[in-house]
From TrEMBL:
It comes from Yoonia vestfoldensis. Keywords: Aminotransferase, Membrane, Repeat, Transferase, Transmembrane, Transmembrane helix. Its EC number is 2.6.1.16. It is an enzyme of class 2 (transferase). SUPFAM superfamilies: SIS domain. Residues 27-170, 192-333 form the SIS domain. PANTHER family: AMINOTRANSFERASE-RELATED, GLUCOSAMINE--FRUCTOSE-6-PHOSPHATE AMINOTRANSFERASE, ISOMERIZING. This is Glutamine--fructose-6-phosphate aminotransferase (Isomerizing). InterPro entries: GlmS/AgaS_SIS (IPR035466), GlmS/FrlB_SIS (IPR035490), SIS_dom (IPR001347), SIS_dom_sf (IPR046348). The keyword Transmembrane helix applies. It comes from the Bacteria. The gene is glmS. The chain crosses the membrane at residues 295-318. It holds the Pfam family SIS.
Length: 333
C-alpha cells in the first residue's frame, strides 16, 4: 500500500484552522495544584514558544505585579545556572523534549525555582521535571511550523494565570466567548498576501503583547515563505532600525487595540508612511474581537495571520508543511 501524498500546506492549513477551537478549550481549563506568588518569573523557550512566552510575560506582569522575563536555556544547558530562590520558571515547549529545555528545567529546580510547564505532549521529559504542568491540548501537530500549539500555549498560559489570580478568570472566559464567533478570514487577506509577495524586507511591529505576536509572525514569514522579516517594538523601531527604511520596506503593524499603546503605534505608522514605506496595520477591533485581554488579542492576530502566510508560501511555490532546512523538533544546546 503506497503512502498517501499530501498536498503542500495541507497539514498547516488543517492545524491553523483549529486555532480558535484549541484556544477555547485551553483558556478555561481547570488547573490544580497549590502555587504561591513567586518574587519573579523567568520563561525558558525557543522559537514560536518563545514568542508565546513574550506575549504571556506582558499579561502576567500586568496582572501579578511581579517581573517576568526570558532566560536563555544556555544558562543551564552549557552554563552553571543562576540562583532562583523564590522564583518560578515557566518552560514552554510543544514537544517537551528539547534537550536544552529539559536541562534548563532540571537546573532551575536545583537552583531553587518552582518549575511550571506548558507542553503539548503528555508525559514529556519537561513535564517529568515540572512541579505543575498545564497542557496545551492542541493534539498532534505534524506541520513543521507550529500554529495551533502557539495559540494554545497562550491560552494555557491564561489558564495558569487565572489559577494564580482567580480574579483573572472572567477575562479568560470573555476571550473564549469572543473566540467562539471569531473568523480567521481577515477582511484584507488578498491585499496583505499581495504585499507579502512583493516584499523583500518586512518589519513586523507591535507593542506590549503585540510585540510577541510580531516575533511569531516574523518567524513564520521566514520559515514558511523565506522572506526576510524582523520584529520590533513600535518604541524601539524608530531608533537605529529606521535606517533600513531607506531601502524598499514593507511594514506590518499588529494592533491589539489597547488604548495605552495607540500613541506609540500611531507615531511609528506616521513615520514609516512619511518615508514612503508600504505600511499595513491590522487591528483587533476590525476582527470583531474588541474587549478581549491583550494576550487573547495577540492570539487572535496570530490566528488570522497564519492562513495569509500559508497561502503566500504556496503562491511562492513552497511547501510550508516541510520547510527545506527545518525539522519539527530542533535539538540545540
Amino acid at each position: 500500500m503506497t503512502q498517501e501524498i499530501k498536498k503542500p500546506g495541507s497539514l498547516m492549513a488543517a492545524e491553523a484552522a483549529q486555532c480558535l477551537e484549541v484556544f477555547q478549550k485551553a483558556a478555561v481549563q481547570a488547573v490544580s495544584g497549590p502555587i504561591n506568588l513567586p518574587n519573579a518569573i523567568y520563561t525558558i523557550a525557543r522559537g514560536s514558544s518563545d514568542a508565546a512566552a513574550n506575549i504571556l510575560s506582558y499579561e502576567f506582569m500586568r496582572e501579578l505585579g511581579v517581573p517576568m522575563t526570558s532566560l536563555p536555556p544556555s544558562v543551564f544547558s552549557i552554563g552553571k545556572g543562576v540562583g532562583l530562590s523564590g522564583a518560578a520558571i515557566l518552560v514552554i515547549s510543544q514537544s517537551g523534549a528539547s534537550h536544552d529545555l529539559v536541562l534548563s528545567a532540571k537546573g532551575a529546580a536545583k537552583a531553587g525555582a518552582r518549575v511550571l510547564a506548558l507542553t503539548n505532549q503528555t508525559d514529556s521529559a519537561v513535564q517529568a521535571v515540572a512541579d505543575l504542568t498545564v497542557p496545551i491540548g492542541a493534539g498532534p501537530e505534524l506541520a513543521v511550523p507550529a500554529t495551533k500549539s502557539v495559540v494554545g500555549a497562550i491560552a494555557a498560559g491564561m489558564a495558569l494565570l487565572a489559577h494564580m489570580k482567580p480574579s483573572y478568570q472572567p477575562k479568560a472566559q470573555r476571550a473564549v466567548e469572543i473566540f467562539g464567533r471569531l473568523s480567521t478570514q481577515h477582511p484584507q487577506t488578498s491585499v496583505l498576501q499581495s504585499a507579502f509577495l512583493r516584499a523583500r524586507h518586512v518589519y513586523v511591529i507591535g507593542r506590549d503583547t503585540g510585540y510577541g505576536a510580531a516575533h511569531e509572525v516574523a518567524l513564520k514569514l521566514k520559515e514558511c515563505c523565506a522572506i526576510h522579516a524582523e520584529a520590533y517594538s513600535s518604541s524601539e523601531v524608530l531608533h537605529g532600525p529606521l535606517q533600513l527604511a531607506t531601502n524598499p520596506l514593507m511594514v506590518l503593524m499588529l494592533d491589539t487595540g489597547q488604548a495605552d499603546i495607540q500613541v506609540s503605534l500611531d507615531q511609528a505608522e506616521a513615520r514609516f508612511r512619511s518615508i514612503d514605506c508600504d505600511v499595513y496595520r491590522i487591528r483587533v477591533p476590525d476582527l470583531e474581537a474588541a474587549d478581549v485581554s491583550p494576550a487573547a488579542a495577540a492570539a487572535a492576530l496570530l490566528a488570522v495571520m497564519y492562513p495569509i502566510i500559508l497561502n503566500t508560501a504556496l503562491v511562492l511555490g513552497l511547501d510550508p508543511d516541510r520547510p527545506e532546512a527545518l525539522s519539527k523538533v530542533t535539538q540545540t544546546t
